[in-house]
TrEMBL record:
GO biological process, one term: translation
Keyword Metal-binding appears in the UniProt entry: no
Gene Ontology cellular component terms for the protein in this record: ribonucleoprotein complex; ribosome
Leader peptide range in chain numbering: none
Assembly with partners or alone: Part of the 50S ribosomal subunit.
Family the UniProt entry places it in: Belongs to the universal ribosomal protein uL4 family.
Name the UniProt record assigns to this protein: Large ribosomal subunit protein uL4
Organism classification: Bacteria, Pseudomonadati, Pseudomonadota, Alphaproteobacteria, Rhodobacterales
Length: 205
């Protein structure tokens, strides 16, 4: 697959050959769903917690005598049957993370890149160099028509570009090692630098 490479000012630079095994697959929703679900589950805190019978703050005194009342036998008001008593079998802190093999995660990333390429939402730029001026970069982004875009650079993000992009709404930037399925699918446009293309192809081969 061949794509034109542009500069940040919108002018043409050259072209680049993309590996069809990475950018030319037929996207599969089931693979993308599994990888996104794995990512989100990994980020879920799992800190939900309720107070059990032994943890609620209440008197432990027996509320009435055992026999002779005509009612059920009870001890303290901490029992789950009473209002403000302990919760029975409620949620406890746990990890929501589950396993997903490295090969499957890599496959998911290939399908995410292919999905953007197929939708025509993949843009290749020569480099992500900037003087660090937000106003100048914001004007370039507006002229290019990027509204919700993710820019993926090479091994390291250009400092000036990252500083300029920090205050632009809808523009995010990641190094090539930070490329992931969820962030790619979340944005309308995926922007790769030439060095990012080389790094991703080396990573996913």
């Amino acid at each position: 697959m061949k794509l034109d490479v542009i500069k940040l000012d919108g002018s043409a630079a050259d072209s680049v050959d993309l590996d069809d095994a990475i950018f030319g697959l037929e996207p599969r929703a089931d693979i993308l769903h599994r990888v996104v679900r794995w990512q989100r589950a990994k980020l879920q805190q799992g800190t939900h917690k309720v107070l059990t019978k032994s943890e609620v703050s209440y008197s432990t005194k027996k509320i009435y005598r055992q026999k002779g009342t005509g009612g059920a036998r009870h001890g303290s008001r901490k029992a789950p049957i009473f209002r403000k008593g302990g919760i029975y079998k409620g949620p406890t802190p746990r990890s929501h993370e589950h396993e997903l093999t490295k090969k499957f995660r890599a496959l998911g990333l290939k399908h995410a890149l292919s999905a953007k390429a197929k939708a025509g939402a993949l843009v290749i730029i020569e480099n992500a160099d900037s003087e660090g001026k937000t106003s100048a970069l914001a004007k370039q982004v507006k002229n290019l028509g990027w509204k919700r875009a993710l820019v993926i650079d090479g091994a390291a993000v250009n400092e000036g570009f990252a500083r300029a992009a920090a205050n632009i709404d809808g523009l995010d930037i990641l190094p090539s090692m930070g490329a992931n399925v969820y962030d790619i699918l979340k944005r309308d446009t995926l922007v790769l630098t030439k060095s990012a293309v080389e790094a991703l192809e080396a990573r996913l081969k």
